[in-house]
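Example noted here:
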Amino acid sequence: MTHLNRLVMASVMVGLLAAAAQAKGFFKVGDPAPNFTLETLDGQTISLAQYKGQVVVLGLFHICEPCLIQGTELQKVHEAFQGKNVQVLGVNSAGNSKEKVKEFLKEFPVKISYPYMVDPKKETDRLYGGGRFIPNVYIIDQDGKIRWQRVGTMEIGAAEVIKAEVEKLLARGKSGGAL
């Protein structure tokens, strides 16, 4: 490897490490999920804290193709757990207007029926370290603690993977056991 190649490789690695260090969204399993209160596309005010006691699947999105794919996967999760102690929530964390977000959701191959909020002040991007790493998916347990996360590409954010993680938390809730 030439000196120039090593220098380029080292620069790339430093850049990746710096970007990862800036991503405040990398929580430790068991960290409390930061609370927020936002408005849904249909005008309801929702707070993350109101879902304490339920398993929450939280998706943070921008208007982009990976977010369309991940949002569609979350719709599958939402449909799989309807009537159970699970709430799927979507947030446009990029500060886009309701109108732009509604237009974006029309592009989805399925109708999104879980609550979808807009965050005009980008509060959730700051709280969860979004922006550079999108889409973000967090699974929050019944006590409000983050138990699983996927920040950035959705290679492992498929509905089946998320559903398996949710099932673990639902089983824990029934048995009262610790993780």
